[in-house]
Amino acid sequence: MTNKHLLIVEDEPDMQQGIKDNLEFEGYTVDVADDGEMAIKKITSTQYDLILLDVMIPKISGFDVCKQVRHKGIETPIIFLTAKGEEIDKVIGLESGGDDYMTKPFSLRELMARIKAVLRRAGNHTKEETDPTIKIGKLEVNFENYMANCDGEPVKLTAKEFDILKYLIEHKNATISRDSILDNIWGYDYQPTARTVDNFILKLRQKIETDPNHPEILITIHGIGYRFVY
To answer: Domains in the chain, start-ordered, CATH in brackets?
Structure first.
């Protein structure tokens, strides 16, 4: 049995109750919220291990809920749930700070697998034994408390930006394909486009490189992916 505490943000009563019942059967402690305002109140007042966040909810959309809680420094893993399947929605969801994305209808078995995968990846952040602070270009990055600064001033990185950067550091000086980044950061069968990876790399360059237009650390290997030179 698990002692993980989850929040379901879903305004469809049958969907909300069905997911809640199955999660509780698996041993999770589950709270629910019916709209974006209630979700933000719960997320900012309770420490959750994971949030299932529907995109189309009343008052405040799921994307905006995610942006607001990330802005507050809350890095609880978020899996978006939505009836929309367009690629642009997936990109917006992940770039707003989400960790995974599921399009309705989905099987409860797949949902449980995704939840376990995201919780496992989140748990790995606490197991690092090496020095958590690393100097990368303009940045000093602490992977233990997920903080970064430049010349003593804090720099905001999303959870996914930290994950991608950490993965590249672990494979420094090697050529890493976009598919490898997708598989290891997002995992399972969810496949955002290569453009998603490119957008994250572009944002990281803005924060790391002295001259982002002529990168010396995050190097593009045309037709393949990237190399982190460190």
So the answer is: 5-126 (3.40.50.2300), 128-228 (1.10.10.10)
